[in-house]
Write a structure and sequence with these properties.
Length: 109
């Protein structure tokens, strides 16, 4: 005998399965949207110039355009450089071992 012929009527089984599926969906959504456990990166924020780990500031231009020009000069010279929006304005950062060379390249320009 099937489920509908024995003890549980057919509509009750459908309702029970629907409630189980709804419960699973609620649990999945709670897990997905729980605070502090997101797998999506949060919106970047501007930090202080000393909050960028090992990188050191080699240029403190007034605008992002000037900072990008400095960054491209360093990149053209074969140095790895990053443009960071800090709370003090745009800053061009390099690794400590490249600092001396980077400053020389920027002075020559």
């Amino acid at each position: 005998m099937g489920l509908t012929g024995g003890g549980v009527p057919g509509p009750l089984v459908g309702l029970l399965l629907s409630l189980v599926m709804l419960g699973l969906l609620v649990l999945a959504l709670r897990w997905t949207f729980a605070r502090g456990h997101s797998v999506v990166a949060r919106k970047p924020r501007a930090g202080r110039a000393d909050e960028y780990g090992l990188l050191v500031v080699v240029s403190e231009p007034g605008t992002f355009v000037e900072a990008e020009v400095d960054r491209q000069r360093l990149t053209a010279a074969g140095l790895r450089a990053t443009l960071a929006p800090t709370t003090d304005g745009p800053r061009v950062l390099v690794f400590p071992e490249d600092e001396r060379t980077a400053r020389a390249v920027l002075r020559a320009a």
